[in-house]
Automatic annotation (TrEMBL):
Lineage, opening ranks: Eukaryota, Haptista, Haptophyta, Prymnesiophyceae, Coccolithales
Protein name: FAD-binding FR-type domain-containing protein
Ranges where the FAD-binding FR-type domain occurs: 316-449
UniProt-recorded Gene Ontology molecular function terms: oxidoreductase activity
Matching InterPro entries: FAD-bd_FR_type (IPR017927), Riboflavin_synthase-like_b-brl (IPR017938), Thioredoxin-like_sf (IPR036249)
SUPFAM superfamilies (UniProt xref): Riboflavin synthase domain-like, Thioredoxin-like
Length: 449
């Protein structure tokens, strides 16, 4: 737009404004001869400018030392900071990968300081980042894709990072999924770890990457108690021909097959794999060493089968608990009382030379709500929900765990709805004065910090 008489810029012109002793920031002129009500009569500012970061400011004088034309070429220091949450819920949702994405995109536009931070107090909408610019703060929540993190960088710097590089986009997306899987695997959250993994296998850029992802996919399925599905995944890439001592990736798949078969108690199938390995003829010392290690591992696997025969399928990192009763606390919450004698439940009590000590930090457990196939959180038929027991570590060691659970009714939460259905008999017993639930069983994880 044409500038008003006596002014250098018009509404809509791109300018740079001096915002401190050494910093300039980009913006757009939005008003001419701007004034505020409390100013003395006749006092006006030549320009009101909206900075790219969103703030409205005014230029007190039409001076080159305060406001100048912007040709878009000069790199300016925005002075903005981005704090990326790395606390538990955000880290589990891929916070480390979000930090990596924002760092890389911020480097491409310049002028933004990116650093990890503690909890930002918005755990229910993880992962989160906080942008601090122009003395203002804004939280960006649910940073679940590159478009969301690009918006954070644009807000902080005033410049949109380019997402036209397919190699960079693919690399960052793979990094995010890998970080989420690593964190989920460490916490025995198998549904979260498996989410999207089958699609990653299909989109693997090379055969080597595909084999690694297939192996991880099968290991996670086996850990979640789905041994037959794990075998199906492995059989899709495992060769029906005799294994080769030169093909180490396929030998790893063979070992995974043996371990999965052992968990299922299929001794004959493990022995058949061992026979295939026994027939291999090493051609040098390296192959002889590989065969010896392979034979030893298969023998150990067969020996382990004997200890697992007759046992029901288990979920790694979890134990079966029964619901012993429900005590309503309010209209929207109740204490669920669980009991078990499963020795695999773990403990929050550390044992060492100094004796027994309880974890100093709050600990939690993960409950599996078995809502069935097709749930939105992953390919497994359950939801994973973290709870902090209100009972003690000593209670846990005695096979008791009390959890205060908030009940979402309008609209019903998926896990809450499952608890209502699975534990209806226990709720009825509690309403009439107590009693034991009839085999209302749940999976609870080992305690975790």
């Amino acid at each position: 737009m044409e500038a008003a008489s006596g002014l250098r810029f018009g509404v809509g012109d791109r300018v740079q404004c001096k915002t401190s002793a050494a910093k300039w920031k980009r913006g757009t002129v939005v008003a001419l001869r701007y004034r505020e009500e409390h100013w003395p009569p006749g006092t006006v500012a030549p320009y009101q400018v909206q900075l790219d970061a969103g703030a409205l400011i005014y230029a007190p004088q039409d001076s080159e030392c305060l406001v100048r034309a912007d040709d878009g070429g000069e790199q300016l220091d925005s002075g903005a900071e981005v704090h990326v949450c790395q606390a538990g819920p955000c880290r589990r949702a891929g916070g480390e990968a979000v930090l990596l994405e924002i760092e890389e995109m911020a480097n491409s536009v310049g002028g933004v300081v990116v650093q990890p931070s503690g909890c930002l107090g918005n755990c229910s909408q993880a992962p989160n980042a906080l942008v601090v610019a122009d003395a203002s703060e804004r939280i960006f929540a649910r940073l679940c894709n590159l478009s969301a993190t690009a918006e954070v960088v644009e807000r902080a710097s005033g410049r949109a990072p380019s997402l036209d590089d397919p190699e960079m986009v693919s690399r960052l997306q793979r990094a995010r999924r890998l970080r989420v899987r690593m964190e989920a695997r460490e916490e025995s959250k198998w549904n979260l770890a498996l989410a999207g993994l089958a699609e990653d296998v299909q989109a693997a850029p090379s055969q080597e990457d595909r084999l690694e992802l297939v192996q991880e996919h099968a290991q996670l399925l086996a850990a979640a108690g789905f041994g037959e599905k794990a075998l199906e995944v492995l059989s899709a890439v495992a060769s029906s021909d005799e294994p080769s001592l030169q093909n180490v990736p396929h030998l790893r798949l063979l070992l995974d097959q043996a371990k999965t078969l052992a968990r299922l108690g299929r001794v004959a199938d493990v022995e058949a794999l061992q026979s295939r390995v026994d027939r291999l003829k090493p051609r040098n010392a390296r192959e002889s060493n590989i065969k010896a290690q392979l034979v030893q591992l298969l023998r150990e696997t067969i020996h382990e089968v004997a200890t697992q025969l007759g046992s029901s399928p288990r979920i790694q990192g979890y134990a079966r608990w029964r619901l012993d009763g429900i005590t309503p606390v309010s209209k929207h919450s109740a204490v669920y009382r669980f009991r078990t004698d499963d020795a695999s439940r773990g403990t929050p009590i550390r044992r060492g030379r100094g004796g027994r000590t309880v974890w100093s930090k709050t600990w939690h457990v993960t409950l599996l709500a078995e809502v069935g196939e097709g749930n939105p959180e992953g390919p497994l038929p359950w939801l994973e929900r973290d709870y902090t027991p209100i009972s003690t570590a000593q209670d846990w060691e005695s096979g008791r765990c009390d959890i205060l659970i908030k009940i979402y009714l309008e609209p019903p939460g998926l896990a809450t709805e499952w608890l209502h259905g699975a534990c209806g008999d226990a709720r009825a017993a509690a309403a009439t004065g107590g009693g034991r639930a009839r085999e209302a069983l749940v999976w609870l994880s080992r305690p975790a910090k």
